[in-house]
Amino acid sequence: MSVVVQKYGGSSVADAESIKRVARRIVETRRAGHAVCVVVSAMGDTTDGLLDLAKQVTPLPPGRELDMLLTAGERISMALVAMAIANLGHEARSFTGSQAGVITDAVHGRARIIDVTPGRIQTALDAGHIAIVAGFQGVSLDTKDITTLGRGGSDTTAVALAAALDADVCEIYTDVDGVFTADPRIVPAARKITQLSNEEMLEMAACGAKILHLRCVEYARRFDMPIHVRSSFSAHEGTWVTDKPQGDSVEAPIIAGVAHDRTEAKITIVGVPDRAGMAAEIFKAVALAEINIDMIVQNISVSETGLTDISFTLPKTDGQTGVQALGRIQGKVGFATILYDDHIGKLSLIGAGMRSHPGVSARLFQALADAGINIEMISTSEIRVSVVTRDDQLDDAVRAVHTAFGLDSSDGEAVVYGGSGR
Amino acid sequence: MSVVVQKYGGSSVADAESIKRVARRIVETRRAGHAVCVVVSAMGDTTDGLLDLAKQVTPLPPGRELDMLLTAGERISMALVAMAIANLGHEARSFTGSQAGVITDAVHGRARIIDVTPGRIQTALDAGHIAIVAGFQGVSLDTKDITTLGRGGSDTTAVALAAALDADVCEIYTDVDGVFTADPRIVPAARKITQLSNEEMLEMAACGAKILHLRCVEYARRFDMPIHVRSSFSAHEGTWVTDKPQGDSVEAPIIAGVAHDRTEAKITIVGVPDRAGMAAEIFKAVALAEINIDMIVQNISVSETGLTDISFTLPKTDGQTGVQALGRIQGKVGFATILYDDHIGKLSLIGAGMRSHPGVSARLFQALADAGINIEMISTSEIRVSVVTRDDQLDDAVRAVHTAFGLDSSDGEAVVYGGSGR
């Protein structure tokens, strides 16, 4: 019997009515002849409520105890989903991450999955039962303590279980119809994407598309597990994330979509002596502060002063830490000053097709220029071009680029174009 | 190092402030040089909230899933208590029932503890940590499923862990100062009892004193574990439940206290043929319906009809089931009718001293007669006399008896009295 893993997020199980609706969908899948394993997140804002309780008790909750606390959220939702399924006349069994065999390292709050040993889940499926598994959580191999996987953890749980159960597909249910060519709240003409390659989805996720978390896509790529992102509120086909052609899909368009991100800030270090090792010194300090930096730009030193400027972007939430870490090495490196700018936005154009179609960057820059938008930083990968703009120009930038690459829904297929280099 | 087990009920951990207060008390005990293992219930009305959620999803939640759901309550409170302790600079580790080694049978909703294997708790205590354990829950030996222990479960967890850890004492913290000679809401002159024997406490619990559950006292007696019932809101000594003399306690008084119970109803089966086997037939039907009956009275058949009446008391919550079960055997037994009366109250006078002091019953009946209260049923054990009255006379009955046996606080020591038989 084919195994289907389904994951329902917090908004899909936010209250009793939602849980009953989810239960009906699960039962439909079971009745269609599949073995069904379901991964659930905590109900609605349960996790926020628990975090708030923790904050009332202590400003610095120990990681082990915070994980113990937060995992109560999925425990509640999974039991309720199992009950709702039972009410429809099907057998369901809920399992904690630990019971489901989700084995992790011992890093509380952002544990990584080391192994999945889904013996109890397999037994339940073999018995014809529907298995309901708590997302976002596991058990540490070393300490036997309960861990949580951090952001995107439930999606990762679902993909990891799908891989371990050799499922046909991992369905990620959310409150939108799939992955779009741009955020429909910004670009009303945005279209649902039928299929994305893993690397495109990875770039989308890394560039601010919130629908799937990076870790989950990485996991899916490693285990070659197709993901189907779809809405729990409709029966529509969603977006397939897989490198295998799905259904009657035609040749993939050159550009998959436009992602945007408002969560980053920019730090510019002004007047850095243009000597070997200075950049290394600076980014070593940032790395020691455990900050993930994104884009880096170093101006070529053209002045006679022998000084240069270095800019990089980092999560806004790490802004203060970053500035402090750099402040501590100011004397050693000898730069002039640090500028912190949290009014930036990042636009990324993503498409595996751009590998074989030069001119994408040029067209992108032209579209932004035509819209009167200044580009502050640029970075590229094989299948992505990202630019940093002022944050209040980001929405305009996304719309302009979406239109320029023929992604608007009224335009039909994305345009194919020529050009030189990028 | 001496081990102290402390149990805090839902009202003691109802909110963040209460949890911080409980944490301070736990840390005080640790600083006094004891190894401390703490058992907690769910916060305030968390359990009711979870039950309500379940009801919104299905009228008949499967027991396995209901247990999974409800155990989220202690998970939240234990993690918060551990955090609050960490905030005071002490190391605390929370453990689920399963992690704490509370092994039960597989009867969901009212599982019984089969074994306690507190290896992880002992390790934590040996490391100088404070262990926080979820009350009310365990893990089934056979199915490895999460179970709950039912009413009084957290107290039972505490006593079971105390026994397994060879603790000096199991402290049960509650919102009153201890066990009283009567409910202070009914008898303002009621006094806190300094010490009760296990069998007295068993009778008190069985007769409606809500402060400790029967199972927990049974467990404590079996393992000879002293219980200290005390308030989490004050530092006062509470009530010791133990057969060992505590401190400078003088000879125990004859009467320990007056318990009352409004949770029972009375069924009278009228016109039962006075033949052998009829009572057996009736109580077999009641037992098959899984109803625990309490008092039974059969009138001696004096009439020439050869018919008798049988009355018994049972929990009001089982009333409908009981009447239906009897209705099904009416034809077979051939009785006339069933009367159901849920306006009764039960008063129980308890004291190990009454074994050696005859006349207690006589004095009790006289006190009730003087107060104009009619007695409907009587039952006795070695150390208890119980009577059933109208429910609206129960409070007056309790006050009259409390005074008659010299238990009012202004009276000093309980009176010693003579008399003939009881």
Task: Give me some keywords for this one.
homodimer; about 425 residues; alpha/beta; Carbamate kinase; VC0802-like; 2 domains; about 30% helix; globular
Number of strands of chain A: 20
* Largest interface, Cβ cutoff 8 Å: A-B, 38 and 38 residues
Radius of gyration of chain A, in angstroms, nearest whole number: 23 Å
User: Beta-strand percentage of chain A?
Assistant: 15-25%
Helix content of chain A: 25-40%
Average residue pLDDT of chain A: 91
Major sheet characteristics of chain A: 8 strands, mixed
Structural account:
Two copies of one chain form a homodimer. In chain A, a hairpin with a 5-residue loop joins strand 7 and strand 8 (146-148). Chain A folds into two domains: 3-175, 3-Layer(aba) Sandwich (Carbamate kinase), CATH 3.40.1160; 246-422, VC0802-like, CATH 3.30.2130. The first copy, chain A, is globular. Chain A has 422 residues and is of the alpha/beta class. Chain A is built from twelve helices and 20 strands. Chain A has helices at 16-31, 46-57, 63-86, 119-126, 153-164, 198-206, 214-222, 278-288, 319-328, 330-333, 360-370, 394-404; strands at 3-8, 35-40, 92-95, 102-104, 113-116, 130-134, 137-140, 146-148, 169-174, 195-196, 227-231, 239-241, 257-261, 264-273, 296-298, 307-315, 337-341, 344-350, 377-381, 384-390. The interface between A and B is large, with 38 and 38 residues.
